Amino acid sequence: MKLGVAIKTVAATAASISICTCASAASCALNPTNHHGVAFLGPPKKSASTISSWKRILRPYSTTRPSDSKSYQFNNPLQSTTDDNEQETISLPEIKLYNSLTRTKTPLVPLSPPKVTMYTCGPTVYDSAHVGNFRAFLTYDVLKRVLLYLGYDVDHVCNLTDVDDKIIKRCDREGISLIELTRKYEEKFFEDLEALNIVKANVYPRATEHIDEMAKFIFDLERNGLAYRSEEGSWYFSVSKKEGYGTRLVQLDPEQLKIGASAETGGAGAQRGALDADEYDSEKEGVRDFCLWKAFKPEFDREDGTWNPVVEMEDGTTREIGRGRPGWHLECSAMARKYLGNTIDLHAGGVDLKFPHHENEIAQSEGANCAPFCSCWVHNGFVNIGDEKMSKSKGNFLTLRGACPTADDVRAYRYLVVSSQYRNPLSFTEAALSAAKGALKRLDKVKAMMAEALDKGEDTADTNTSESAIIATVDKELANFELAIVDDLSMPRASACLFSIVKAAEKEFKRVDKTKKDGEESADAALDLAGLKRAQHALDQMDQVFGIFYNVPACKDLASSNDEGPTSGEDAAVPEDIMELVMQRSKAKEAKDFELADSLRAKITELGFSVKDVKDGDPVVSRI
């Protein structure tokens, strides 16, 4: 792979720079006439890191979470270390990504290489995340692993939405506090990340612990003429005053924008937009304006889910925002600014978040900070069940524990996702998961065979390298692998390279087996240990990106592939995930989607339970 891409001063592109229209335009960084307008494009910092990115192997990471922290923080040993005595500027490989902002594949050019700042949209912790959600988190993981493989240092922030309409409704329904509910599902989320071998973000800030930052953000928008307070006490963003709104990541006619419409999908963006709008429309000045802060409504809101922050202004005075809670879009802008600064290198999320969520983030951040928000936007495609996007609103979702009840299933789901092209839709079917399990079984088998052969013949593993056909294949496929990962994370090509090396190793074992069966005792009966050793190292090197060779950690809801399963009998408790599948099946039957209902019954049976329908009553669930 060509490594001659040197770090250089960032050049601005027209697609990533906005023209400021705020009240502070005279001193704004977005104003092209201001000499400070390209301050963020200054000379790069010199890196002290000369670690060889090609030889770093992923190591276990810490999951210690400070109890008094405003966020979950993780020490990431994958990041390169700094030696203060070294002052050499390094060259890094160039990676091209499909940038939703420019609608083309463009090189990623960090503001302060080798550091890359990366913000990703996290979960709303009112329920377990489903496998469709985890496609996004696995996409973030592949992207980050590739950057680490190439030698970049990734400063990754992923938010936790722990207050919104859904959370409040579920707290009321279950009669528990907001913290009880959200901490429960935070823990489940982190358990699922562990199970999927996802490299942790540096920090997971909670929305509820950054209320002051959000209030300050609103006042910054007001100062720039982009936010206003209604008579009832809610705060709104004035869309008509932000030039280019709704056209940065999507191409919409601003006059035809509908409240809550999702530009391409009608998905999560539509659902969220409707929630933002339904109880907070009466006082809006413009039909397109979106809510920044929702005023307290005693008939709906909770005491433990509302705040009245006091903000110290630049002139030394203080102001109250008014009792209420933040809108969904605001938290990401405020927390990205706190942890990563006004301008970030990468922002990732699902394609359904392009509008309104990510368009709103851009409008808020550039409106408050008077600086470009993000230079590269990466969006992943959906996971589909049948021909439909998987979502909780459609009732066709499967949690990780429900869809992947064994360790082998979990690894297979990881491989299924990370070996796909992240921008395309991905169909989740039993056949697809089974194929992924078969691929992993083949990989595990050849790795075990190589390890055994090398253990027996370790002393001769470094000889006779000049005529090794395996080594020639490995060198070729490693080069192709590295070309694939820097070409918009072309993981299907990378997977093909992986299996080309596997095939070369398998061919070598078959050759020797055949020679021995034919009774030949010549040198041809000896394994090419030097080639197998190189192949073994290559698979480990590629796994820095794939992350598929690992032991799935034990989880209370996750069975080992060798477990015999729980004791049968109707007295045994039915797990929560099984009941979730039963509820989904009932909804599918009510909607007369009998194909989905049958597939869910099959899944329930596969997990060791039977469902008996009862006329005018709830189905009876029992262990088989």
Structure description:
The chain is α/β, with parallel strands linked by helices and about 625 residues long. The chain is built from 15 helices and 19 strands. The chain has helices spanning about 130-150, 165-175, 180-195, 210-225, 270-280, 330-340, 355-370, 400-405, 405-420, 430-455, 470-485, 490-515, 530-545, 575-590, 595-605, and strands spanning about 70-75, 95-100, 105, 115-120, 155-160, 205, 225-230, 235, 290-295, 310, 320, 325, 345-350, 375-380, 385, 390, 425, 610, 620-624. The protein has a 4-stranded parallel sheet, with helices on both faces. Helix 5 (about 270-280) packs across helix 7 (about 355-370) and helix 10 packs antiparallel against helix 13 (about 530-545). The chain starts with about 70 loop residues before the first strand and ends with a strand. Mean pLDDT is about 80; it is low at about 1-20, about 30-70, about 75-85, about 260-280 and about 560-570. GO terms for molecular function: ATP binding; cysteine-tRNA ligase activity; metal ion binding. Its main location: cytoplasm. It is found in: Cytoplasm.
Distance from first to last alpha carbon: 55 Å
What does the main sheet amount to?
4 strands, parallel
Counted by DSSP, the helix tally is 15
- Regarding quaternary structure, what we see is single chain
What integer value in Å does the Rg equal?
27 Å
Helix content: 25-40%
Shape: globular
Q: How many β strands by DSSP? A: 19
Family: Belongs to the class-I aminoacyl-tRNA synthetase family.
Main location: cytoplasm
Organism: Cyclotella cryptica
EC number: 6.1.1.16
